[in-house]
Amino acid sequence: MSDKKERKLTKREQRRKEIFIEKCRSMEEEGYKTENLFFSILQANFVGLLITLPINFLFLAVHYLFNDFVPNGSYSPYIGLIFIALMLLLIVVHELIHGITWGHFAAEGRKSIEFGVIWQALTPYCTCSSPLTKGEYIKGALMPTIVLGFIPGIIAAITGWVPLLILSQLMILAGAGDVLIVARLLLHRPKKAKVVYLDHPTECGLVAFVKKND
Ligand SMILES: [Zn+2]
After folding, report:
1. Ligand 1 centroid to 98 CA: how many Å?
2. Total structural domains in the chain?
3. Could you list which residues have their CB under 5 Å from ion ligand 1?
4. 178: CA distance to ligand 1 center in Å?
5. Which pLDDT tens digit goes with each residue over 88-113?
């Protein structure tokens, strides 16, 4: 009988798990202690959204500070379909931006970066198998939201182009999980210690390797 709680790992996940265990072992040999920074499904879905919505409102407020509420111009009747196609494309681009940024910082470069899709949740993901400093991890986590959410939001406010505003709003929402991780990292401040962070291969979240300075 299979245990329903244990999700069956794919071959790639199994291999990633082995690399992860090996990395943990070598870090512990170097004197690091491992701390789990995991999220429950509730936290990931709800708290992430709760932190992200004020950012959405901020960009909305800035937009309507400079623009009318009534959108000008006429839009194609296919705008809905165009939007859905564009969103699917941008979700892939979002993951690519994670990969490029983290790959730039990772000791093993692009080789550390892996992309995949959790088909049950139709969620694409990007994962980095090299430990990163807090600043590096945060830059890689926020970059897709900056490039696809914040910058289009600013351009939309300047031009008054509503489709771009909607797109930027949706892309900010798409980064809710990343904003949650960044918030968690900012709250993780062990005193007088060297810390690096590593994606967990199967859990929702990451681990911190903490070495106390003596
Ligand atoms: Zn992301």
Report:
1. 7
2. 1
3. 178
4. 5
5. 999 999 999 999 999 999 999 999 99
